[in-house]
């Protein structure tokens, strides 16, 4: 215990040094604080449902109420609902996985400098180049959303990435070939779909560049994979995007199935007899049905009671905005973006497709 004198022969004051606990590597107070934080996190985690517990609860509930559930599923409305839901998921999921793989490949293997060289520096010129690039990439709208998100993360101007998002599912070779097969007696439908979709994609890209605001577009989230090998980072990115985008795809498919099951078929027959109303009806139907762009041409060809222009609107609107796309765009770019981008895209697609159909069909 150290001693200190106050001077001369006066009283001696002593100060006691309080020993600090130390471990092998010094002060252990930070370790104690860290342990306290970990215990608090464990307590907080215990208060919330994790995915495994939630799945277990759902399975137990399904077993307990299997009788009423089986009876409800036997109803014609529920059978129709299940048919549409499964059809949307089966059509969309492979292309969603394709888009996720492309997104992960762009994020991990493609350097940011590539896009600086591939696209013009001026956004006004980058928009049509990105729109035209959609013609060489097979895939549907479910694939284009994660790819567009990856482009934004890699520094591509949002106007160009959004133009690509709209054009890729509508003018790629697979979609145009399917359109030609579905309309063998109307080859002009292929040209009309290509022209109208490309015009809408460019117009929306330029419109976003002109009036879009940064705070409307939430940068797509991306987990950090620094320090990992390219293979580990690639599969980590794939798992992240499949979990993220897949959940919104399920929500969109459920909404499409619900609306499909409750919309009376008589409404369609009544709308087909009015030129303007028929265009609007098929535009709304394209949003509600949420059919994959590789399959929508065959659905449009079956709607023989409608004019070619109305069916062209169905083919232009569907790949650009539908229920599952709105849900996925909300999850990728944010609700503020989707609430503005989706209505503008819908209105522009209806107008452009109607004008294009009047001229070419």
Automatic annotation (TrEMBL):
Pfam families according to UniProt: ArsP_1
- Report keywords, A-Z: Cell membrane, Membrane, Transmembrane, Transmembrane helix
Q: What is this protein called?
A: Permease
Report biased composition (Basic and acidic residues) as residue ranges. Answer: 18-45
Species name: Streptomyces violaceus
| Similarity field | Belongs to the UPF0718 family.
| Cellular compartment(s) | Cell membrane
**Chain positions covered by the region annotation Disordered:** 1-45
The cross-references to PANTHER family, in alphabetical order and at most eight, read: UPF0718 PROTEIN YCGR
Q: Which residues cross the membrane?
A: 49-69, 81-111, 159-183, 190-209, 245-263, 270-291, 297-317, 337-360
Instruction: Tell whether Ribonucleoprotein is among the UniProt keywords.
Output: no
Signal peptide interval: none
* InterPro entries xref list: DUF318 (IPR005524), UPF0718 (IPR052923)
What is its membrane topology?
A: Multi-pass membrane protein
């Amino acid at each position: 215990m150290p001693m200190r004198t106050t001077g001369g022969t006066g009283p001696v004051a002593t100060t006691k040094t309080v020993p600090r606990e130390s471990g092998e590597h010094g002060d252990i107070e930070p370790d104690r604080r860290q342990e306290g934080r970990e215990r608090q996190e464990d307590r907080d985690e215990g208060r919330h449902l994790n995915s495994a517990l939630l799945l277990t609860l759902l399975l137990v509930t399904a077993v307990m109420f299997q009788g009423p559930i089986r009876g409800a599923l036997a109803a014609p409305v529920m059978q129709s609902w299940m048919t549409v839901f499964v059809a949307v998921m089966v059509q969309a999921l492979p292309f969603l996985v394709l888009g996720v793989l492309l997104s992960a490949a762009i994020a991990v293997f493609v350097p940011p400098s590539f896009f600086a060289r591939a696209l013009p520096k001026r956004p006004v010129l980058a928009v049509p180049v990105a729109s035209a690039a959609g013609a060489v990439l097979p895939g549907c709208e479910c694939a284009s959303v994660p790819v567009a998100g990856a482009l934004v993360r890699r520094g591509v101007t949002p106007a160009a990435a959004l133009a690509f998002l709209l054009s890729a599912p509508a003018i790629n070779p697979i979609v145009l070939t399917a359109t030609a097969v579905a309309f063998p007696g109307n080859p002009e439908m292929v040209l009309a779909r290509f022209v109208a979709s490309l015009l809408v994609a460019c117009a929306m890209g330029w419109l976003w560049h002109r009036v879009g605001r940064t705070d409307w577009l939430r940068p797509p989230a991306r987990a950090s994979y620094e320090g990992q090998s390219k293979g580990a980072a690639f599969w980590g990115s794939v798992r992240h995007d499949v979990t993220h985008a897949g959940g919104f795809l399920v929500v969109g498919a459920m909404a499409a199935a619900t609306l499909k099951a409750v919309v009376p078929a008589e409404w369609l027959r009544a709308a087909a007899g009015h030129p303007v109303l028929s265009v609007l009806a098929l535009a709304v139907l394209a949003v509600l049905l949420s059919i994959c762009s590789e399959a929508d041409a065959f659905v449009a060809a079956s709607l023989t009671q409608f004019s070619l222009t109305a069916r062209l609107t169905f083919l232009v609107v569907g790949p650009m905005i539908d229920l599952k796309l709105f849900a996925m765009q909300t999850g990728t770019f944010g609700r503020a973006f989707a609430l503005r981008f989706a209505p503008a895209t819908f209105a522009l697609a209806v107008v452009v497709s109607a004008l294009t159909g009047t001229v070419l069909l």
